Amino acid sequence: MNYKPCNHIRSTTLQAALLALMLIFSGCGSFIPTSGPDTGEITNAADSKRLKDIQIVDINDTVVSRLLLSQTQNSFSDTFNTSIRKGNVIGAGDVIEVSIWELSPALFSGVVFDSRTASSASHVTTLPEQMVNSEGTINIPFVGQIEVAGRSIQQIESEIKRSLKGKANQPQVLVRTLRNNTTNVTVVGEVASSIRMSLTARKERVLDALAAAGGVRMPVNKMTLQLTRGSQVQAMPLDVIIRDPKQNIVLQPDDVITLSYQPLSFTALGATGKNEEINFEVQGISLSQALARSGGIQDNRANADGVFIFRYESAKAVGLNGQGQLTRPDGKVPVIYRVNLKDPASLFIAQNFIMQNKDLLYVSNAQAADYQKFLNMVVSIVYPVVNVINAIPSLP
Question: What is the spatial distance between Cα 280 and Cα 295, in angstroms, rounded to a whole number?
Answer without folding.
Answer: 14
